[in-house]
Amino acid sequence: MKNRLEELRRERGLNQEDLARALRVSRQTIGSLENGRYNPSIALAFRIARYFGLSIEEVFIYEEEQG
Amino acid sequence: MKRNRAKLWYLGYAACAAMLLLIAFADFPRSADIGLACALGAVFGVSHVELWYDKQVKKDENFEIEVEDERNVQIKYRAGFLACGVDMFLFGLATVVFIIMDYTLPAVVTGVMLAAQPLILIAASSVISKRI
User: Fold this and answer.
1) A40 and chain B: CB distance < 8 Å anywhere?
2) Mean pLDDT over all residues of chain B?
3) pLDDT mean over B99-126
4) How does residue A67 score in pLDDT terms, banded at 50, 70 and 90?
5) How confident is the model at residue A29 (pLDDT cuts 50, 70, 90)?
6) SS3 of A26, please?
7) Which residue from A63, A5, A10, A65 is spatially nearest to A34, judged by alpha carbons?
8) Is the ipTM above a cut-off of 0.90?
9) Are B99 and B107 in contact (CB under 8 A)?
10) How far is A22 from A50, CA to CA, in rounded Å?
């Protein structure tokens, strides 16, 4: 699953630490989310989307796995 | 409520002191003293860690975030699963070594622990599947 987290964070002039504090997760989680190594739980996905004032679909892009 | 419950771990220290007195002054057989010493170590370790954890949560907001972070929780579960697999392998190895060395009782103990593992897994799965 792809996401626009890094783009949205940079648009708002936040660093990973700030965003992590706002979402009450570790900075490493933000890093892993941004580079696509980790997919968030539904609850965290909602928290992220609400934080940016967007819908989940506007932040996360679900792609069916091929093959 | 949670805070008060954390204070209950101080009873662990009291239990440790009681066990220490028993080991020092009661006229128990040596094996009972060894058993008490093992229990003392376990109770002290758990109590101390729980109280330390409670203090850290109050003192450092980042500590609570780190502990409750969902990725860290997943890492903990996956690491636990992996460690369990490694433990199974080591128990199997120990059982084989005990059999080769003709140590029947240790072989039976480790063998039973090994055999119990899948049963514990099934029982735990059943309990958890009813909750989620």
Assistant:
1) yes
2) 91
3) 93
4) low
5) very high
6) coil
7) A5
8) no
9) yes
10) 11
How far does the CA of residue A4 sit from the closest CA of chain B (Å)? 19
Burial zone of A26 (CB within 10 Å; 0-12 exposed, 13-18 middle, 19+ buried): buried
> Is A14 in CB contact (< 8 Å) with chain B?
no
* Gap between the Cα atoms of A50 and B5, Å rounded: 34
Q: In which residue are the tokens 């502990």 written?
A: B67
Both structure tokens of B119: 């049963």
Does this model's pTM top 0.90? My answer is no
Inter-residue contact B79 to B73 (CB < 8 Å): no
Nearest to B70 among A20, A21, A25 (CB): A25
Query: From the CA of B88, how many Å to the nearest CA of chain A?
Result: 29
More confident residue, B17 or B2: B17
Question: Tokens for B77?
Answer: 């579960």
